[in-house]
Amino acid sequence: MRLPRIVTLLGYAGLIPFLAGPLWLSLAADSAPAWVDHAWRLWVAMIASFMSGTFWGFALPACEGPEGTIGLIAASLLLILAWIAAVLPSTAALAGLMAVFLLQLLADFWRERTLGSVEGYFQLRAVLTAGACVAIGWRLALG
Fold first, then answer.
1. Which is it for the CA torsion 53, 54, 56, 61, positive or negative?
2. Three-state SS at 89
3. Chain mean position to CA 106
4. Biggest CA-to-CA distance, the chain
5. Is residue 4 classed as helix, strand or coil in its secondary structure?
6. Residue 77 and residue 110: Cα distance in Å, rounded?
7. b/e per residue 84-103 (b: at least 16 CB within 10 A)
8. N or C: less crowded end of the chain, CB within 10 Å?
9. DSSP 76
């Protein structure tokens, strides 16, 4: 199976809010309403949770075998970690969410080799994870 073009387009579109928050705070912090940063952190947490759900979706067809069970457990743990990170204080939350994105990429690396792959998906995930981590790191650098 080949990755549908819409998945790639929506994936890159999802990076826009990741980059928009730190960009606004970098270029015009005085004009940014207080809710912008809060909404940005919610976006990061929501996408971390969503990506945990995609891992669940990949593991579900194989759930009767041991690899599928491991995949479902990993997806559940990633979701719980995303939730825990999201409720931490601001700086810790962002560092935790960055760690979740990196753990998801590691889990997807395992999934590609164990549960099968969709052509181009892992490469897309790696690029999007890098973009998300750059945006989170950028926001952390802003203080």
1. positive
2. coil
3. 12
4. 54
5. coil
6. 15
7. ebbeeeeeebbebbbbbbeb
8. C
9. H
The CA distance from 89 to 107, in Å, is 26
Asked if the model's pLDDT at residue 95 lies above 80, the reply is yes
How many other CB atoms are found less than 10 A from the CB of residue 128? 20
Q: Phi and psi for 122 in degrees, rounded to 5?
A: -65, -40
Q: What is the pTM of this model?
A: 0.92
The closest alpha carbon to 74, from 116, 47, 48, 104, belongs to 104
| Tokens (6 digits) for 24 | 């606004």
134 pLDDT higher than 80: yes
Tokens for 143, please give them.
């203080």
Mean pLDDT on 115-125 = 90
- According to DSSP, residue 118 is labeled -
pLDDT at 59: 85
Q: In angstroms, how far is CA 18 from the centroid of its own chain? A: 10
Residue 63 phi, psi (nearest 5): -65, -20
Measured between alpha carbons, how far is 80 from 86 in angstroms, rounded to an integer? Answer: 10
Where along the chain do its domains lie?
5-15+36-142
**Runs of H (alpha helix) within 60-142:** 66-86, 90-114, 121-142
Residue identified by tokens 């730190």 is 22
Q: Any bridge partners for residue 2, and if so which?
A: 119
